[in-house]
Amino acid sequence: MDIFFLLKLVTIGVGFYMAWTIGANDVSNAIGTSVGTKALPLKKAVILAALLEFAGAFFLGSHVSETIQEGIVNPYVFSATPMIYVLGMVAALLATGIWLHLASYLGLPVSTTHAIVGSVLGFGALIGGIHAVYWDKILSIAASWVLSPVMSGFLAYFLFSLLQKRIFFSIHPLKAAKRLIPILVFISIFTFSLTLIYQGLAVLNFHPNIYESVALSIITGLIGFFIGKIIVSRLPKDQCIPGTSPHPMESVHLEKAAKHLLRLKLSAKGETRKKASSLLKETAMLKKEVQKKSHVSKESSIYNKIENQFKYLQMISACMIAFAHGANDVSNAIGPVAAVFDVLNSKVINTSSNIPTWILLLGGSGIVIGLATWGWRVIETIGKKITTLTPTRGFSAELGASLTILVSSKLGLPISTTHALVGAVLGVGIAKGISAINLRVLRDIVMSWLITIPVCALLNIVVFYILKFILSRFTGFSI
To answer: pTM score, two decimals?
Structure first.
C-alpha cells in the first residue's frame, strides 16, 4: 500500500477520533446549562445541539482552522523534512484525543483548545526548536483564554442583574416580563442570524455585504420579536407583588445600608462607633429575615410563571452556544487534518491552504457522534455542580458565553468554550452571591485547565516517537 495513502487514512481516522472526543467532552458544556435548568430534557438537548454543532462547524469552522493549522508553529522550519511535520500534526491529534477521552471518562470538563494548542506547541518547540513557535500568536491566544471567561462572566452578570432589576425587582413583574422578553428574543435571534449570514454562508457561495446581512438579520429578529410577544401574551394580566411579602428591592437597600454602616463603624470612635456596631447587627438580622421571606415569595406562582417563559429563551440561547461551539472548536480537529493533507498532496509545506468542505463535514460529524454517545458524562458539572441554575440564570450564562465565542470565532481566536461557559456560569453565580458558588468544583476545574497544556505537550512527544518507530519498523519508510 502506498505510504502516502496510508498516512491519509490514518489522518482521517485520528482526526475523526479527535472530533469525537471534542463532542464527548466540550459539547457537554454547550448544553449543560439547558439540561441543568430543565429547560430541555437530555435527549432533546442532544438532538438540538447535534444539529447546531454541525451547522456551526460547517458554516464557520474554517475561519479558526487557519489559526490552528499555521498560526502556532512555523511550517517552513520543517520544509526540508515535511514528513516530520506530518507526523507531528497526526501525533498532536492523537495525543489530544487521548487526553480528552480520559478526561471525559473521569467527568472533567477540560479545554480542547488548550489541549490541541499544547500538543502543537510541544511538538513544534521540541522537534522544530524554540524558534519554530510563533510566540506572539501564543501570547495572543493565551490572552484570549483569560479574556474569554472575564468577558463572558461580565456579560452574564450584566444580563442576569438586568433581569433581576427590570423584572424580578419590579413592582409589576409580569408587565415587565411581557415588555422585556420579546426584546431579548430579538437580540438573541438578530445576533445569531448576523453571525450566520455575514460571511458565514461563504461555503454555500452566498456572499451578502454587511448592509444586506444586517437587513436580513433585522427581519429574522423581528419575526422572533413577534413570536416572543405571542408567547408572553399567555401570561396573566399585570398584578403587583402581594403586600404580605417583602419587595425584593428591600434586600438590596438593606445591603447598601449595611455597607454604609460598616464604613461608619470603621471610621468612627467612641459612642458613635458603638451605635454603628449595634445598628449594623440589627441591619444584618433584618436582612436575613427579609431574604428568607423574599425566597418564599419568589417561589410563588408569579415568579414561577416568569421563569417558565425563560425556558423558551434558553432554547434560543442553547442553539446559539451550540452553533458557536461548533464554529470555534471544530478547528481543533480539522486544522491539523487540513495541514497534513496539504503536505501529502503537494509534497511541500505551504504557508496556507484551503479547508476542503469534506474536512469540515468530517469534523462536524465527529463532534455530533461524540456528543450523542459520550456527551452525557460531563454535563452535570456545568449544569448543576458550579452553582444552582434557573432558566433566567441559564439564559444569561448561555447568551453571555455565546456572544463571546461567536465574536472570537469571527476574529480567528481559538478561545476555550469551557472557559467562556464556566466564566458565564460564575458570572450569574456571583450575581447571586459568592456563597452560591461551589468553590471545590471550581478549584477542580481550574486545576484541570492548568495541567492540560503540559500533559498534552508531553503526550504529543511520546506519541510522535511511537508513530515514527511504527512507520519505520513496519513500512521501511524512514524519516
So the answer is: 0.74
Q: Round to whole Å and give the CA distance between 414 and 63.
A: 10
Contact status, residue 451 vs residue 118, Cβ threshold 8 Å: no
pLDDT at 237: 66
Q: How many angstroms from the chain centroid is the CA of residue 227?
A: 27
Query: To the nearest whole percent, how much of the chain has pLDDT over 90?
Result: 11
The three-state DSSP-derived secondary structure of the chain is CCHHHHHHHHHHHHHHHHHHHHHHHCHHHHHHHHHHCCCCCHHHHHHHHHHHHHHHHHHHHHHHHHHHHHCCECHHHHCCCHHHHHHHHHHHHHHHHHHHHHHHHHCCCCCHHHHHHHHHHHHHHHHHCHHHECHHHHHHHHHHHHHHHHHHHHHHHHHHHHHHHHHHCCCCHHHHHHHHHHHHHHHHHHHHHHHHHCCCCHHHCCCCCHHHHHHHHHHHHHHHHHHHHHHHCCCCCCCCCCCCCCCCHHHHHHHHHHHHHHHHHHHCCHHHHHHHHHHHHHHHHHHHHHHHHHHHHHCCHHHHHHHHHHHHHHHHHHHHHHHHHHHHHCHHHHHHHHHHHHHHHHCCCCCCCCCCHHHHHHHHHHHHHHHHHHHHHHHHHHHHHCECCCHHHHHHHHHHHHHHHHHHHHHCCCCCHHHHHHHHHHHHHHHHCHHHECHHHHHHHHHHHHHHHHHHHHHHHHHHHHHHHHHHHHHCCCC
On whether the CB atoms of residues 391 and 45 are closer than 8 A, the answer is: no
Phi, psi of 254 (to 5 degrees): -65, -35
Residues 6+ apart with CB under 8 A from 130: none
**What pLDDT digit, counting tens, does each position of 405-418 carry?**
777 766 766 677 77
Query: Is the torsion defined by CA of 299, 304, 306, 311 positive or negative?
Result: positive
- The pLDDT score that the predictor gives to residue 97 is 93
Q: Using the predicted structure, report yes or no on whether residue 14 has a pLDDT greater than 90.
A: yes
Name residue, grid cell 434557573: 390
Q: Please tell me which residue, 297 or 327, carries the higher pLDDT value.
A: 327
Over residues 45-95, the pLDDT tens digits come to 778 888 887 777 777 666 555 555 556 777 777 777 888 888 888 999 999
pLDDT, average across residues 430-442? 74
Q: Read off the pLDDT band of 205 (50, 70, 90).
A: low
Closest CA to 75 of 353, 477, 331, 328: 353
Give the confidence band of 244 by pLDDT, cuts at 50, 70, 90.
very low
Among residues 102, 133, 130, 131, the alpha carbon closest in space to that of 115 is found at 102
